[in-house]
């Protein structure tokens, strides 16, 4: 009931599922630089590809198609 009496809110821009992972990954010497694509989490796969963190042997479009559960 406490949550009902006093709702808690978080900043969906700076505390979303992607930005929090990025913040915690800063301990990794190879972590990615900040990008607006981290704030808009739908762009993270593209950002990872552009940063060379995903398979570069195929285009991003083909890699994305390969990741579909039901192609």
Low-confidence stretches: none
Strand content: under 5%
Question: Gyration radius, to the nearest Å?
Answer: 16 Å
Multimerization status: single chain
Q: What is the mean predicted local confidence, pLDDT?
A: 86
Number of helices: 5
Helices, strands, pairings?
Layout: H1 2-5, H2 17-24, H3 36-39, H4 44-50, H5 60-67
Provide an overview of this structure:
The protein is an all-alpha fold. It has a domain at 34-71. The protein is built from 5 helices and no strands. It has helices at residues 2-5, 17-24, 36-39, 44-50, 60-67. The protein is extended and about 55 Å long.
Throw out a few tags for this protein.
71 residues, 0% strand, extended, mainly alpha, 44% helix, 5 helices
What is this entry, summarized?
This protein is an all-alpha fold and 71 residues long. It has helices at residues 2-5, 17-24, 36-39, 44-50, 60-67. The protein has a domain at 34-71.
